[in-house]
Amino acid sequence: MLPYGRQSISDEDVEAVAAILRGDWLTTGPTVTAFETAVSELAGGHRAVSCTSGTAALHMAYAGLRIGPGDEVVTTPMTFVATASCAAIMGAEIVFADVEEDTALLDPAAVEAVVTDRTKVIAAVDYAGHAADYDTLQAIADRAGAKTLGDAAHSVGGFYKGRPVGDLADVTTMSFFPTKNLTTGEGGAVVAKDPAVAQRVHEFHFIGLVRDPARFQITDEGPWHQEVHEFGVNYRLTDVACALGLSQLKRLAGFTKRRSEITARYNEAFEPVDGVRTPAQRDYVDPAWHLYPVRILGGRRREIFEGLRAAGIGVQVNYIPVYWHPVFANAGYKRGMCPNAEQYYREEISLPMYPDLTDADVDRVIETLTNLVS
């Protein structure tokens, strides 16, 4: 079975991890610091805090923004559930706004229609690796007294109007899962423009520990002292994982280039094919394509999906609208509230997309899909 996504691990990646295993630090040590510095440089120079997953990053980001009961978080239904569920865990009310019909990105006009004086965060998702329209979303957030969050699980390495992902929203979350644009095994990061938010994110992911003597409330202990002012969790990434991440960052430009080549090859093949719709791209965005989301028209998505799987082509669907999940449906969210997202879901199939995919592999996918829809 040709997988729809896969990590790319080089001998240099293996040696980078092995070097850590032969050294003195396994968990939170100097390689974590080096990796966070490298992610910061990639993301416009803002502080980066690494963590154990993209989901952990979202939880940390909402905690750093002090999301809680009574707050509203406006977000897209066309995403993995964690974009919404991590805010819900903090007690926020989730408000879903529809997506643009062609890109499946959060539609600023739909956001404008639902923001209220309780809106605290507008959380966009860079679906498939294509950055959302952050300038417009930021203007809406600023008028509402809210913050923007960019879920960049798909888009690390991409650009919007010449600015890198990580420099687009007030807070950005990243995922380094094996199928993503680079990997630390499992892992993620939060990038925050406001240093105070970044510090809260750091402390939340570090069990809430405060180690700055100037902030201590207990002042008569010795040099070993540390204390907790707010509850946190242990979402710390390891030196082992960060060694892999540092090595992968050296390859990110090559990964991004190959993903663009695969996208162009798919686009050229499928644009003239009846019953198939290729992904849209704005001229001001330089995506870091994580997915290739082709749309199958005429109500044939399941038929074509099963045909591709039967032919040994590993495909996936990304994503069921978040509010269709029973945890949201049982809370009163109704189908039909975001028609563009629901129609996109009914048509979408993610074709194989990863840097080690060969041209012959791509041609096999093209031929199989073209034959199935003919």
UniProtKB/TrEMBL annotation:
CDD domains, alphabetized: AHBA_syn
Necessary cofactors: pyridoxal 5'-phosphate
Keywords: Aminotransferase, Pyridoxal phosphate, Transferase
Annotated positions of the N6-(pyridoxal phosphate)lysine modification: 180
InterPro entries attached to this UniProt entry: DegT/StrS_aminotransferase, PseC, PyrdxlP-dep_Trfase, PyrdxlP-dep_Trfase_major, PyrdxlP-dep_Trfase_small
Pfam families: DegT_DnrJ_EryC1
KW Cytoplasm (keyword) present: no
E.C. number: 2.6.1.92
Active site: 180 (proton acceptor)
GO biological process: polysaccharide biosynthetic process
GO MF annotations in UniProt: pyridoxal phosphate binding; transaminase activity
UniProt KW Zinc-finger keyword: no
Broad class of enzyme this protein falls into: transferase
Family from the record: Belongs to the DegT/DnrJ/EryC1 family.
Protein name: UDP-4-amino-4, 6-dideoxy-N-acetyl-beta-L-altrosamine transaminase
